[in-house]
Design brief:
seven-stranded mixed beta sheet, alpha/beta, 6 helices
Length: 182
């Protein structure tokens, strides 16, 4: 049995971060709800989403939310027991917020971070680590990398566990006493 824990799983593209996050969620005693932030904007992305759906356990719930993750956490916090929410992933969510424009990024980010602190169940949050790459050549790419880096830092502060996925292996970056391990 795994105690209630908020976990951030970081990694690069195809690093194995989603598989590690899914393994973490699979060990929970509470029901699991997969919170997907992706949108199927093209055929290739639709195939990726279908592959992800096909390998998830049938008894896991699914919520598709591209912008208002704070609302998702708030709604699920009302359930008894609060389910383990596996949120995949922050980079796609951030892209959606940047595309939405205006003040949405700050409003949704603040609401989500506040709900993380209040959420009574386990959370497993997946995010890309962009801090290991080159500096983007255009302003939007630089803004995306900056915002994702700041978001990852804020998430790491609020999570009891932070792991980095490298070649499918978990490197523990933070583990507070009593937090579970992968």
């Amino acid at each position: 049995m795994i105690n209630t824990c908020h976990t951030l799983v970081l990694g690069g593209i195809r690093s194995g971060k989603t598989a590690l996050a899914e393994a973490q969620a699979a060990h929970q005693t509470a029901p699991v709800v997969y919170v997907a932030t992706a949108t199927a904007g093209d055929d290739e992305m639709a195939r990726r989403i279908s592959r992800h759906q096909a390998i998830r356990p049938q008894d896991w719930g699914l919520v598709e939310e591209q912008l208002d993750l704070g609302k998702v956490l708030q709604q699920h916090a009302q359930l008894t027991p609060a389910p383990c929410l596996l949120i995949d992933c922050m980079s796609l969510w951030l892209s959606n917020l940047l595309y939405a424009g205006g003040e949405q990024l700050q409003i949704q980010r603040d609401a989500f971070l506040a709900q993380i602190e209040a959420y009574p169940g386990s959370l497993v949050i997946v995010s890309n680590e962009t801090g290991l790459g080159i500096i983007g050549m255009d302003p939007l790419t630089r803004q995306f990398c900056d915002e994702l880096g700041w978001l990852n830092q804020a998430l790491a502060q609020r999570c009891q566990r932070v792991v980095m996925a490298i070649a499918g292996l978990a490197l523990t970056l933070k583990a507070t006493p009593g937090s579970n391990t992968l």
